[in-house]
From TrEMBL:
Stated name of the protein: Co-chaperone DjlA N-terminal domain-containing protein
Annotated InterPro entries: DjlA_N, TerB-like
Domain Co-chaperone DjlA N-terminal: 19-127
Gene3D superfamilies assigned: TerB-like
Species name: Sorangium cellulosum
CDD domains hit by this protein: terB_like
Length: 140
C-alpha cells in the first residue's frame, strides 16, 4: 500500500500557487462571471494556501492576468500551460478539489461550473473523484 503524503501549500513555489489559483478561478468563471462570494473565497483560499504570500492585491492582479490569458489562449491553452506548471498529479488534484469548494461558495454548483470542473479534470489528467458527490445545480 502506498503511503499518502500531504502537500504543504505554504512551502510551494509562488508559480505553483498561482497555477492553483488559476484553476480555481477558471472554475468560478465558467459561468462567465465571478461573483463577490466566489471572489472572496478565492482570495481567502489564496491567502491561506500561501501563508499570506498571496494577498488580496496580488490575487486581484493575478485575476486580471488570468482573464487576459483566457481571452488570448482559450481554456484549452490555459489547461495545457497549467498541466506543465503543475507536474505533480497531487497538486493538480488539490487544485481541482479547491476549485470544487470555490464554486460551491455561493451555495450552488451551476451546470457551467460543473462542466468546467469535469473538463479541467480531464485536461489535467486528474481522476474525477468529485463527479459523484457534486451534482450540477446542487445547493450546499
Amino acid at each position: 500500500m502506498m503511503e499518502e503524503t500531504q502537500l504543504s501549500f505554504p512551502h510551494l513555489e509562488l508559480s505553483k500557487l498561482e497555477a492553483m489559483v488559476e484553476i480555481m478561478f477558471l472554475a468560478a468563471y465558467a459561468d462567465g462571471s465571478i461573483n463577490e462570494a466566489e471572489r472572496a473565497e478565492l482570495t481567502a483560499h489564496a491567502a491561506a494556501m500561501s501563508a499570506g504570500r498571496l494577498g488580496a492585491e496580488v490575487v486581484e492582479s493575478l485575476i486580471s492576468i488570468i482573464e487576459r490569458s483566457v481571452r488570448e489562449e482559450g481554456r484549452n491553452g490555459r489547461f495545457a500551460a497549467l498541466r506543465a506548471r503543475l507536474p505533480d498529479v497531487r497538486m493538480r488534484e488539490a487544485a481541482i478539489e479547491l476549485a470544487v469548494r470555490l464554486v460551491a461558495a455561493d451555495g450552488v454548483i451551476h451546470e457551467s461550473e460543473h462542466a468546467l470542473l469535469v473538463e479541467a479534470a480531464r485536461a489535467l489528467e486528474v481522476p474525477i473523484a468529485f463527479k459523484g458527490r457534486v451534482a450540477s445545480g446542487s445547493a450546499r
